[in-house]
Universal stress protein UspA (Marinobacter halophilus), 139 residues
Amino acid sequence: MYKRILVPVDLSQLGNMPKTLNTAIDVAKHYQASLCYVTVTNSTPGAAAHNPEELAEKLAEFAEEQGQVHGIQTDSKVLESVDTAVELDKKLLDAIKDTGSDLVIMASHAPGLGDKLHLLRSNGAEIVKHSDISVFIVR
């Protein structure tokens, strides 16, 4: 049913997304699908890396490790953005097409105070609204 699953990740938030990561792995195993871990970053230093090239290396290492540990095919893609807060949804929608993904598994949004107060919009909801493929939102 599914052949290629896109999994947006933030390497600085991996500890907050075990349900999302485990769900993606379980679905990939069930359907013998590959996982493509994707992240969107600014060209300026961030919490996970000093520059996009370093982030690409770290994401590739993470994807390879996940593939070896869980016995699934994985790869990774880093997308650069001028302003991730503004362009994140568009970049993820572009990544869906660029990678040929037929399913997205993602967290609804980064957990935190905004989650409790319902102040932050959900990137997951935007992807659901504008994507042509199925989207599995993990809370």
